[in-house]
Structure formats: C-alpha cells, structure tokens
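Q: What would this chain look like folded?
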Amino acid sequence: MILTGPEITSASQDGRLRISPFLPTQVNPNSYNVRLGPVLLTYTEEVLDSHRPNPTRRIQIGDDGYTLQPGELYLGHTQEEVGSDCFVPLLFGRSSVGRLGLFVEITAPIGDIGFHGQWTLMLTPTRPVRVYAGMRIGQIMFFVSEGAVDLYAGKYQAASGPQSSAYWRDLDASEAAS
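A: My prediction, written as structure tokens:
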C-alpha cells in the first residue's frame, strides 16, 4: 500500500514520517517532491575502484545554476532530510526532469526503514542540462511495510550532503582478498 498525499501530510505531522523542512506545496497525490541541494560531487579518477575510497571534487551550485555534462556522474543531494521508522521510501526523478534528459536515480531508488538524512542523488545527463539548487528534482513515495522491522543503522545514516560510494566498507575477507 502506498501513502496518499493527505496521509503523507498526516504522517509527517504525527511523527511516523520525518521530512525537514516539510512544505505543504511539495505534497503530490501520492508522493512528496524533494529539491536539489547546493552541493555536487564528481569523482576525479578515470577508473573507480570498488575496494577503496575514490577521490572526489566538490562543486557548489551558484545562483546561476550549474551545467551538467553527458558522460559524467554527479552526486547531488536532497535539501530535505527524509526518513521513517514505519514506511519504506522510494525515490524517483520527476517526469519533467526526465524530459530534460536527466536521470536522477540510476540504480538505488529504495530507502531503508530507519534511515533519516539527506538522500544522495545519482545524476546523469544525456545532454548538457543546467540545474539549480532548490529545484524540484525528485519525488519520494512511501510504502507500508509488513512484518518485523529491523531499522537501518548503516554507513549512510544521518547523511548530510552528497555521499560518495562506501562500498569498500562492507567488504568481507573473501571479497577484500580478490
């Protein structure tokens, strides 16, 4: 079951869902719009290594926006901190942003119950596209879970700003040796 807009508002008011800041104008019929934060990260190495940290470059989006270039992966973030200990959040790009040729979430739209923080956005443009801090970039839907809940307590908890991959932190001995 997916939450409707009025239920998203109700759940944010009674604490079952945390969205900060919460703006009633961002509520849709069955989702909540999230806005692009002011910081982007790009990786600086040609080849990324999943077994160790990869260096990044920080980009501050100015008042006149920033033009994303094809062939580059940009890590952005939501302005809003979003999370719930009750509902499963899923983040998708807005259709109007997709119509500009901008993929907002490549492979990981599902959030974990218990995560609370800003969401990292994986931005990939098909052609040059100018983005602005504060623009409505995506939407989060909330699903009711069934069964026992094991709250998220992972490496990205309480994220603030874009987070580069920390895949290497989860390597077990057999993976790390390969």
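The radius of gyration is 17 Å.
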